[in-house]
Design brief:
270 residues, alpha+beta, 3-stranded antiparallel sheet, two-stranded antiparallel sheet, 10 helices, globular, MAIN-like, AminoTfrase-like_pln_mobile
Length: 270
């Protein structure tokens, strides 16, 4: 569908669900450091980066703040071959909303609802295609990892320089960086994926409405084939890290987080 391509969701639509290794995820959560947003391994720090999100993707409140995925599926299940342009556009928006909330990009705790806050972003497909959806996905992933460690679903030692992850499988070199350079993988990656590679290893805030998470890719320069220098002190968020959208539906988050928006724009435009 041309509208999916225009909005930047053409490749995301090809993603399929797969079985998750819960034991491995739990082990990784235990090593997540909420201060520096990296997994602390015995030999190295590592993290999910914007490169990973780009290559992998190609890119519950009430009071009617959410749409159920079941409602979207029922009401936009079939599209007639004679459908008008307006109906095709509505169907494309409904499908993208399912990709966002249906366990593919940005699911909530129950994975059966998608928040209406994303719908206005799809009003203009050409504009939607210019948004950094990858950084939004990464911000949510970081936020969920921090929430998991905070609420006891994982444990990170206060002394994060001395982690204990003997139960995690590592290769004989200590750690295997997934650089996507293996011939059988590299041939599957379209060249356009690399057009925004200049933002993959920057230190910048990533925003998703109320959520602000810091991208500290300067701590994992080896992933990008660079020499690792001594990382700078991690950014501190004060009370921003715990802000939610609950009871704040009228807040303009672009204004509320204008400092972080400015920092993102400054890094992106370099």
């Amino acid at each position: 569908m041309p509208y999916l391509k225009l909005a930047g969701f053409e490749d995301v639509a090809l993603i399929r669900r797969f079985d998750l290794r819960v034991n491995l995820i739990s082990a990784l959560v235990e090593q997540w450091c909420t201060v520096i947003h990296t997994f602390i391994m015995p030999c190295v720090e590592c993290t999910i980066t914007l490169e990973d999100v780009t290559i992998q993707l190609g890119n519950g409140e009430q009071n009617f703040t959410c749409l159920t995925l079941a409602w979207l599926r029922v009401n936009f299940k079939k599209l007639s071959s004679t459908a008008t342009k307006h109906k095709v556009i509505c169907a494309a928006r409904a499908y993208i909303m399912q990709l966002i909330g249906g366990g593919v990009l940005m699911p909530n705790n129950t994975s059966n609802r998608v928040h209406l806050k994303y719908l206005p972003l799809l009003e203009d497909f050409s504009r939607a295609g210019s948004y950094s959806w990858g950084s939004i996905v990464l911000a949510i992933l970081y936020h969920e990892l921090c929430r998991a460690t905070k609420h006891g679903m994982g444990h990170v030692s206060e002394n994060w320089c001395e982690p204990n992850i003997s139960h995690l499988p590592l290769n004989d070199r200590g750690f295997l960086w997934m650089s996507y350079s293996a011939p059988n993988i590299a041939t599957l990656i379209p060249q356009w994926v690399h057009t925004e590679a200049h933002v993959w290893c920057i230190n910048t805030p990533m925003l998703n409405f109320s959520t602000v998470e810091w991208n500290n890719d300067s701590r994992v320069m080896q992933k990008f084939g660079c020499r690792q220098f001594v990382p700078v002190e991690p950014q501190q968020f004060a009370d921003v890290h715990d802000k939610t959208m609950r009871g704040k539906h009228t807040i303009d988050w672009n204004v509320e987080h204008q400092l972080y928006v400015a920092l993102w724009n400054a890094w992106y435009e370099k």
